[in-house]
Amino acid sequence: MTREEAVQILHQYTKGESLLRHARTVELVMRGYAQKLAQDQELWGNTGLLHDADYEAFPDRHPQVVVGILQECGEDAMAHAIAAHYSHWGVSHDTLLDKALLGCDEITGFVVACAQVRPQRLQGLEAKSVLKKLKQASFAASVDRSEVRLGAELLGIDLPEHIEFIIQTLQPHAEELQLQPVS
């Protein structure tokens, strides 16, 4: 599947600016990890882009709708990773792609939430600040902290190092993501 085809699927089911930004941030981080781990950047990026594609239109059937679409297209690796991107669904994490998507989803959204409450946004954001916010249950309360920890564990990476990688990956895209400093 090309990125253009993935974008088409995403926009067919997702209209909200916040969810579109989340899809893009997870795509960027997944592409970054694919490059770092010598994996298929297109596959990993598209998986990140589409992981929540059906959430807005079909919240009660998420992620089955997008998983079905991907299976019909023969994109079984993407379909399985998306089916497994939340551990409470009980789908096994068999591949590095599966583990990476679970590992990048919640924490990438959390890093963006941390950036949004700072006047400098992503500029100067450090992992230690994100870790401090993770301890505040009331901040971005919908982020499942156990998924954040499990994701880093599945990737075999230290959580502070993981957070730093995400920040560094997103910083060059701050303008596109509307996360540049507020003047």
Automatic annotation (TrEMBL):
Ranges of residues in domain HD: 20-90
UniProt KW keywords: Hydrolase
GO molecular function: hydrolase activity
Residues of the signal peptide: none
Keyword match Nucleus: no
Listed PANTHER family: METAL DEPENDENT PHOSPHOHYDROLASE (PTHR38659:SF1), METAL-DEPENDENT PHOSPHOHYDROLASE (PTHR38659)
This protein's name: Putative hydrolase (HD superfamily)
Naturally occurring in which organism (per UniProt): Rufibacter quisquiliarum
